[in-house]
């Protein structure tokens, strides 16, 4: 009888321990490859350098220096402005595409989704290199415009400029906006849209009062993806921007590699990480609010 009494207790213990054991590899992965490096970077940001040597003495000088250097603030402001512009551009381009795939594609839906995802199968360096071939003074775009007689000399601003950086970032992150938007729009029942139209709501009012609010979670998730990745982007600005205006990630790389000031670079990285975490915290609040309004 005592063994039978212990059996339910042991079963309850197994139901608790088995999920915990399944989460253990994930927790170890996060500890080793995320929390530990972030902790080391945070600690390094309070060190100092002397004659290119690391001195493990606690100081806030790195953060004070960052706040006192206008060039760093200009690069951070440029990164934020670029990320916001790319996010807005991706939202404008992604919404009609996601709506088309979700509601109008029919049997072509799977093929279109594959076409959206396909760029991720190619290295980002190769994709950016292709844009350099397209946007250069002797690239396909300039040569085509000159052959059509639309311009008499190639546009020099297409490559190695903020324009080329934004084009590359929009191209890179547009799929990250389309996919969550597609999922949100796909969950909007056609009967809800039809009910609004039956109540004499026109297409514009139906979109503004029904479709747009119901797709808000997808809009927020896509915006977070584009903004966070755009804020810390390095490869695209380095290859397409030409180094004329350095974004914040490029300044961080410069601190580590050229100036060999690791504590200063670590402090900048901590500031960038704080911005990303703040964005994620705000987005979670917005997503919960949008999801609550959708459910209600």
UniProtKB/TrEMBL annotation:
* Residues passing through the membrane, by range: 20-47, 76-102, 108-128, 166-185, 206-231, 266-287
Q: Transport as a keyword?
A: yes
**Which key words are in the record?**
Cell membrane, Membrane, Transmembrane, Transmembrane helix, Transport
Keyword Transport attributed: yes
One GO CC annotation: plasma membrane
Principal cellular location given in the protein's record? membrane
Q: Some GO term, biological process aspect, for this entry: which one?
A: transmembrane transport
Q: What Pfam family is a match, any one?
A: BPD_transp_1
Give the membrane topology.
Answer: Multi-pass membrane protein
Q: Where is the ABC transmembrane type-1 domain?
A: 76-283
Where found in the cell? Cell membrane
Q: Which family does it belong to?
A: Belongs to the binding-protein-dependent transport system permease family. CysTW subfamily.
**Identification of the protein by name:** Spermidine/putrescine transport system permease protein
